[in-house]
Amino acid sequence: MRSLQGRVAVVTGGTKGVGRGIAAELAAQGARVFVTGRSIREGLDDETNIVGIRCDHRDDREVVSAFERVARESSAIDILVNNVWGGYEQMMEGGVFTWSKPFWEQPIWRWDAMFAAGVRAHYFASQLAVPSMVARKSGLIVNISFWSAQKRIGNVAYGISKAATDKMTADMADELRPYGVAVVSLYPGLVRTEKVMEASAWLDLSNSESPEFIGRAISALAADPNVMRHTGKVLVAAQLGIDYGFSDIDGKTPRPLKLDEI
């Protein structure tokens, strides 16, 4: 059953990884999907029915242009997935792995990247998508976040940026609740992205998730007529799999992790 037939979705940062999987699954469920990314192929992909829009979310003009194009080519946005992210670049600098360095030894560009291409990009995309949702008193915004919002993982800047994402979710939800627009933060587990699979020989993937699994979680939320019960909350993709009764593309149901297991 194509549960999202007739819906319009925008997935930011959907060139690869989690964003690619989300876009593919939303399209498989019948949604018309627009995907943004710095290196994405422009135009309609005839095989997937996904429209690519080249866009650097650090450039406001490009972001405005992207959403104007969505407005021209569709009636309104029903689903916005804020997935675009920065800060994972250049893990190695001068032969040194800097990702896990203490904050006083971190390159300051990493903080800037996580906020410019992450938190701020999510905020601005939401500003542009929300007016049509408010007008129709319907819509879903999903901010991709992670457990580092609640527990130190990796580095200080990473935790602060994800905590900011979750706080943004909660406050946006308060303002949008009267208009019937739901906003949630969604935590993936260990996702079998391209980068993760490059290191698969050193990882335990027994409880991992495909990128499409995250898309199935979002599809389930978007198809739920009572999705407003979730608004403002932090949700875990694997728990949604249990609650909504969907499995991963390999037929497995990942076990949802708890904070003390991260």
**Intertermini distance:** 35 Å
Question: What kind of assembly state do the chains in view correspond to?
Answer: single chain
**Helical/strand content category:** alpha/beta
Q: What is the helix/strand order? A: EHEEEHEEEHEHEHHEH
State the strand order across the main sheet.
3-4-2-1-5-8-9-10
Quick one: how many beta strands? 10
Helix proportion of residues, in percent?
25-40%
Largest sheet: 8 strands, mixed
Any idea what the shape is?
A: globular
pLDDT averaged residue by residue: 93
What is the count of helical runs?
7
Describe the structure.
- The chain is α/β, with parallel strands linked by helices and 262 residues long.
- The chain has 7 helices and 10 strands.
- The protein has an 8-stranded mixed β-sheet, sandwiched between helices. A two-stranded antiparallel ribbon has the order 6-7.
- The longest helix has 29 residues, at 108-136.
- The two termini are 35 Å apart.
Helices and strands in order:
Elements: E1 8-11, H1 17-28, E2 32-37, E3 43-45, E4 50-54, H2 60-73, E5 79-82, E6 92-93, E7 96-97, H3 108-136, E8 139-144, H4 156-176, E9 181-187, H5 194-198, H6 211-223, E10 234-236, H7 237-244
Parallel strand pairs: 1-2, 1-5, 2-4, 5-8, 8-9, 9-10
Antiparallel strand pairs: 3-4, 6-7
Helix pairs in contact: 1-6, 2-3, 3-4, 6-7
Short description:
This protein is α/β, with parallel strands linked by helices. The chain has helices at residues 17-28, 60-73, 108-136, 156-176, 194-198, 211-223, 237-244, and strands at residues 8-11, 32-37, 43-45, 50-54, 79-82, 92-93, 96-97, 139-144, 181-187, 234-236. Helix content is 39%, strand content 16%.
